[in-house]
Amino acid sequence: MKIKDIVKLTNTYLAGEQLTYQKLMPYLDAVIDDINSRLSATFPPFSTIAFTPEMAANIEYNAFPDRYVRSVIPVGAAYKFYLIDEEGVDNSQDLGYRYETNLFYMLRDYVEQVPPYYQSDTKGSVRLPEWVEPVMMTEIMDCPPVKLW
What we know:
Structural class: mainly alpha
Number of strands: 0
């Protein structure tokens, strides 16, 4: 889907606003950041792809399937715009629910299909301080059984 079409679709979710690509770029990037965070991916943000509206008119965003580009990015950008710039207009709650639902569907259906060149090398981990002793599950399971009757 071309970036200019994503901007147009986002404006329809914004009740017919006529925001430019430059004005929407931070919100579009924020949605990509959310997607990258949820999928442990490195999809390129819009600010690195098209710097001007002229570039946005001709460039297609095809980092992931069009289905998710249509259902997640415009809804998420509109939601983030309402939260930040419009001080939480009434329909922002509905957009928020739709955004989280579509983001969940994308995570559920697409997480195993992220191309290797977009997969992040960093996975979440916890580093414990040296003074913390590990507890084995067998130590926890060695408790005497509890009689219920």
